[in-house]
Design brief:
- The protein is α/β, with parallel strands linked by helices.
- 21% of the residues lie in helices and 22% in strands.
- α2 runs parallel beside α3 and α3 runs parallel beside α5.
- Bound molecules: fe (ii) ion.
- The site of fe (ii) ion has 8 residues, from loops.
């Protein structure tokens, strides 16, 4: 009995040690989606999400800065950049080299409120909620730093940008996880060749609104890909009402992928597993922290 218990404790310590290491094992995932009009130039999107930065995370700051070497056509930041009351300068330092490229962003709940300690088992049972009395962050300073750097704020906003020779319409929502999502009024004028929807938390109501609005590609984050996954099985939770099969990666929504049978009514949905965690639960298992190079190709 003693030996069995000893083995179980050793295995638990080993898994915990590995999950602390894995949470620092940043990686770039490269994928593509055939969605552009035939003959279009590919659009290389760097999708970043859930940096959850604190001022002491120098290694993560340096790693995010090096992503500029990919020279993307567009950067999409789906929020939760902050995880500390003093992290706005840290986030702006990490993103500074990427501001040289066209970019769009939305906020997540963690860009509004400082993180508070949580019972990790509760996270596995139900979606998290902003704690009453949580410290408000300087979201306005983050927004100003990004927009003054040239990126477009898509929190409940529409925008059109010329990206790699294609005019792209964007429709963005503020974070549905804390009820801040309001679909912006329809735009006057002609529709662009492509519409991209952007939101932090991929709640079904938000995905439905973006799809109904005409988004052919939807980018989201928030799930951390499940964060603590079962090896070879995948995510146990998404921290919202999206199914765990779509906790991260490139899928169709609401049906199969548009290039699969029965997917003609679907949008492409990319959910980033993100680069960070709540600082009180700094572990990831079978779900490496990631940035994604998503290349949109001609159909
Ligand atoms: Fe997050």
């Amino acid at each position: 009995m003693k030996r069995v218990l000893g083995t179980a404790v050793a295995a638990g310590v080993g898994v915990l040690a590995w999950s602390l290491v894995e949470a620092q094992s940043f990686t770039v995932r490269q994928i593509s989606a055939p969605v552009l009009a035939p003959g279009s130039k590919p659009i290389r999107i760097l999708h970043l999400s859930d940096l959850h930065l604190t001022p002491s995370q120098r290694r993560k700051v340096a790693w995010v800065r090096h992503l500029a070497s990919f020279r993307p056509d567009l950067v999409v930041d789906t929020g939760d950049n902050l995880a500390h009351v003093d992290a706005v300068p840290t986030a702006l330092e990490a993103l500074e080299p990427l501001l040289a490229f066209p970019g769009v962003f939305v906020h997540g709940s963690n860009d509004y409120f400082a993180p508070t300690p949580r019972n990790p088992l509760k996270y596995l049972r139900e979606p998290t909620q902003a704690s009453a009395g949580a410290t408000a962050l300087d979201t306005a300073a983050l927004t100003a730093g990004l927009t003054e750097g040239g990126w477009t704020d898509l929190n409940n906003v529409r925008a059109s940008l010329e990206i790699a020779g294609t005019t792209v319409d964007f429709v963005g929502l503020d974070d549905p996880h804390i009820g801040r999502d309001r679909l912006p009024e329809p735009a006057a004028g002609a529709e662009a060749a492509l519409r991209i929807g952007v939101v932090h938390a991929p709640y079904l109501r938000a995905l439905g609104q973006l799809r109904e609005d005409g988004a052919e590609v939807i980018l989201a984050g928030h799930t951390h890909g499940g964060q603590v996954n079962v090896p070879f099985r995948g995510a146990l939770v998404t921290n919202c009402d999206l199914d765990t099969a779509r906790a991260s990666g490139l899928h169709g929504w609401p049906g199969p992928r548009p290039d699969e049978q029965g997917g003609s009514e679907s949008a492409w949905l990319h959910v980033s597993a993100g680069l960070g965690t709540n600082p009180y639960t700094p572990v990831r298992l079978a779900c490496r922290p990631e940035a994604t190079m998503l290349t949109l190709l001609p159909r």
